[in-house]
Amino acid sequence: MTQRIYLLTGPVRSGKTTALRKWAHRQTKVCGLLTPDLDGFRCFMDLQTQHYFLMEAVASPASQVLEIGRFQFNANSFSRARRILQHAKPGVNGTSLDCEWIIVDEVGPMELRGDGLEPEISRLIKEHKTEGNTRLVLVVRDSILEQVIDHFKIDYYHLLTKGTLSESLVT
């Protein structure tokens, strides 16, 4: 079985996103999402357009807030992020966006409970198990790695750390 799913893992705030952003910057056919901090706020970054948009719920009405633990996120931003992932479809000759790599930063507790970037995570994993030439990179903190693997039934994957990223993700 061709392994087209890569799991980038490590502790929280260990530099996974930064390492992946540096790697993606050197590529030409990458789409999906990164979640960097920008001026002290968590943001989404659309890798195709390089546009940032705020992930955190700052002055959002309560009806537009997703909560996980002590964190509050903007539900509209997650809707926008899911739309970005909807366009990231593997195909025989790449994707509708002509991407060789689809990145999702990150798969976390919200996705495990069916919120956040779901159902797009499930769709991408299913499609990458059965079709296409694109490769899928999922960022998962080490403390929930096994839960994510079990929950999404990921059987075949390459396990990456920020230290093995550049040598493992060769285009």
Number of domains: 1
Mean pLDDT: 85
- CATH topology title: Rossmann fold
Q: Give the biggest sheet.
A: 8 strands, mixed
CATH second-level architecture: 3-Layer(aba) Sandwich
Gyration radius from CA atoms, angstroms: 15 Å
Helix content: 25-40%
Q: Care to describe what's here?
A:
- It is a single chain.
- The chain has helices at residues 16-25, 75-86, 109-112, 120-130, 145-151, 165-168; strands at residues 5-10, 30-34, 37-38, 41-46, 52-54, 65-68, 71-74, 90-91, 94-95, 101-105, 135-141, 158-160.
- The chain starts with a strand and ends with a helix.
- By secondary structure, it is an alpha/beta fold.
- It has a single domain (5-168), classed as Rossmann fold (3-Layer(aba) Sandwich), CATH 3.40.50.
- Strands 1, 2, 3, 4, 5, 10, 11 and 12 form an 8-stranded mixed β-sheet that branches. A two-stranded antiparallel ribbon has the order 6-7. Strands 8-9 form a two-stranded antiparallel sheet.
In short:
The chain has 171 residues and is an alpha/beta fold. It is 28% helix and 29% strand. About 3% of the residues have low confidence.
Q: What are the SSEs and their pairings?
A:
Elements: E1 5-10, H1 16-25, E2 30-34, E3 37-38, E4 41-46, E5 52-54, E6 65-68, E7 71-74, H2 75-86, E8 90-91, E9 94-95, E10 101-105, H3 109-112, H4 120-130, E11 135-141, H5 145-151, E12 158-160, H6 165-168
Parallel strand pairs: 1-11, 1-12, 2-10, 10-11
Antiparallel strand pairs: 2-4, 3-4, 4-5, 6-7, 8-9
